[in-house]
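user: can you give me the structure for this one chain? tokens are fine.
assistant: on it. calling the predictor now.
[tool input]
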Amino acid sequence: MDYSNHLDEHFIEEVVSSNNIVDIISSYVQLKKMGNNYKGLCPFHNEKTPSFVVNEDKQIFKCFGCGEGGNAIGFLMKKENMTFTEALKNLCERANITYPTTKYSDEHKKNFTKKKRIYQLHKDLARYYFSNMQKNLDNSMQYLQNRGINEKTIKNFGLGYETKNSDSVNYLLDLGYTKDELIESQVFREKNNRIYSIFFSRIIFPIIDASNRVIAFGGRSMGDSMPKYLNSPESIIFKKKNELYGLNLAKKYNSTRIILVEGYMDVIRLNQNGIVGAIASLGTSLTKEQSELIKKQNKTVYICYDSDFAGINATIRAIDILKEQNIAPYIITLEDAKDPDEFFNRHKPIDFFKCIEKSVSPLTFSIDTLAKNYNFDIHSQKLEFLDRACDLLVKSDSELEKEYQIKRLSALTDFSIKAIGVKVYGEYFSPKRFNIDNKYSTSSSSKILNKPNFLITNPNYNRLKEILINNNSLIVFVTPILDAEELYDSEIKQLYTKSNEYNDITFKEEDVLLTKKLAFSIKYEIFQKKIKEIEDSIKNEKDSSNIIELSNKKIDFIKKMGEDTVSDDFDVDILETDFEPSVEELNDEELIEDFSNINISDVYSEDDDMLTSHEYDQAVQSLIEQGKREGYIDYDSIINTMDSYDISKDKIEDMYDKFASFGIDIVDDIEKEGTPTEEDEKIAEEHRNEDIDISNLDLSMVKGNIDDPVRMYLKEIGKIPLLSTEEEIKLSVLMVNGDEYAKMKIVEANLRLVVSIAKRYVGRGMLFLDLIQEGNLGLIKAVEKFDYTKGFKFSTYATWWIRQAITRAIADQARTIRIPVHMVETINKLIRVNRQLVQELGRDPRPEEMAEHMNMSQDKIREIMKIAQEPVSLETPIGEEEDSHLGDFIPDDDALAPSEAAAYSLLREQIDQVLNTLTDRERRVLKLRFGLDDGRPKTLEEVGKEFDVTRERIRQIEAKALRKLRGPKKSNKLKDYLD
């Protein structure tokens, strides 16, 4: 049966939107996240370079190689050779949707047509409201700007305005909508045969669903009229409990987190300040359906409701609802603001990021909220609080959570851990359960902080504990970094034995990054503490032989820590000394001081080269032979030849030096293949979103003469810490607001990216330092142009600016006439083709022969050859004796002919003779007025200042002098030169 006979478009759209195309295609193709898209090898044709792109926001795929594209249904039809109906049934099964087996009734089709009309009505109405806002009707835009909303944000959210006269009614009727359709939309009401908008005189917030359809509106009064906020009533296309305001933008920006807030303005202000992922329920408490929508996003969830009594209760209800979906949210508390909207009136975006970092678990929030209602100075109230808090602990399923909170309650109430533990676990509880000695289980909170293990007061350690309490499975990312013996809590140690159970779980990216970051910070602090203990022992040791022994112990410990602890920022040197001094040296105080001050960088070494000299020479020689044949070699050939070998940076640079000695150019793929096609440009556009990990960039020296300033520069930039994605966003937000320090930090953190790119262009006629300088100019330009709201990493964006700056500099250097970069690449190709034809033909090739090889017209070849010609100096010697110059034989069209030069010389003499017949004042006035001395005429006012007289007086002197010169005797001497 034809599907169109019994399936409407809405059902098909519902099925498609209920499936994630990334999940479907991932079962056939290995996809990799590239910015906002996913990329992989096309399943419909053979390719080596990925050109198959999947867009999760639009739920479509496209291959820029073979041209295949479509949605999830189209993919299954093509890949599995299914019919449309079969593919649709497959998607229904995946989404647990019942496939209809009966034909739709006429009534059903009529309802579907009505829905389409209402969707379009809302879309047209949103455009009308937006146009009203742009016109600033009733100072609506001024109102929003006073609330801190800028024009860009107004456009992004489509904010609008409804007039007090409900002019939107006539607008929609003029578009062809009926009165019944206006009433059906629930945006309009009818009274006394008059239709009016329920949103009159209100700021309009379009409510857009996850499929980017306008389904309803919210309105905010500009004055004191109540209610302050008003939502569209439910309609055939809008059900409040199923929608979340801002979810469409959270999906668009691919946020790593979801921040649940109360109102429209909270969502808008967060987005405007660079904190994406904010969503809001629509005037109601969070519903089960909304929590299911949140779960589908698979993001870390934060709750940031209002800090008033109603907001606290709403937070507690939201925690319970999200718990039903197995979501453990973090609670953000804003200490001096009611909500995010008010928060940004007083604070910068970076302050909100700090609040995110300080967010707490649901149980911590509940206990802290409960504590605010009691006075702990009153013993009875303290007991009542403890009873209620322990009831909350009893309900918790996490043993880690219980242990953590029991310690907090002990510190908060001054009751012992044992007393609180008995209330939670029963009378058989013992502090040994938590691996705590009784002597530390006192009622004093200060004694808890003085326990032997220094980690108990470490904020990073406590934050990690809280994360593991909420999500035990994250222990799999801690075990490779921290040993169980290094941890304080026995419950966390017990998770180590269960880590293998969590290997098949899918984790949220933000949770993983935060867990690793905290674990590494703890590892480093443990390392620093142990190093300090050894250093203290060295300082207190008097015996020089023991000092040497302790120093060697310190070295061994640093080596044991390995690369997990040593930062990439150190300037590393290979250490081969065993530190076995002679007897005389044992009494050398300076030597002992050197041993006691051994640095981490002194013992960190790189792996030795694994490639033997013979294999290396063979591999390089094959590349040299290829370069001789073709006149150039591309990076792909180098990578393919050397990929199977593990070679050091020095050997790579040595290889480049050998290529240069044979005159072999190293070119990029784009230079080898000529001008990119339209298809190439599309693929390149997709690659712009690829993430570039600058932490692995090469900062080693290039071979050749490198000045000390270059070495110093590379050493200095290696010490600058890299930025995480979160830090990039924070600094970008500050930079947009005019913070020059933030701009400087972004530039400094990416200087190593410039060096890595500049090294690829060594040997092209510019010094390494000049290449770095030009690349830095491109980096600064990238910082100024970077838009953090696009979603891709800064390093990806900056790469294109840096490359452009360097290639343009290479193209411009040593040229009097500047040539565009794209033409330089074409000229390079022409030179290579010319070199190849000379070898084949034994003579210089003709233009028609070169045109055939380059697939260009002869006229185009001649034009390129003309552009490629080098300028010739007019001082170039001519003849065997070189006693003449080229400039002697080229006429100068701008120079005077000898006859004209003689005439001008005589005219000058006659003018001087005529002027000498005037008085000194008259002669000076005429010379100044007509610029006879310097060629620049002066105004009457300027000449008047010279003589300290008025403009009128100068005019009189000038007129008198000219009358004298007009006499026949004087004027005839000059008239002859006019011919």
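assistant: here you go. The chain has 44 helices and 19 strands. The two ends are 99 Å apart (CA to CA).
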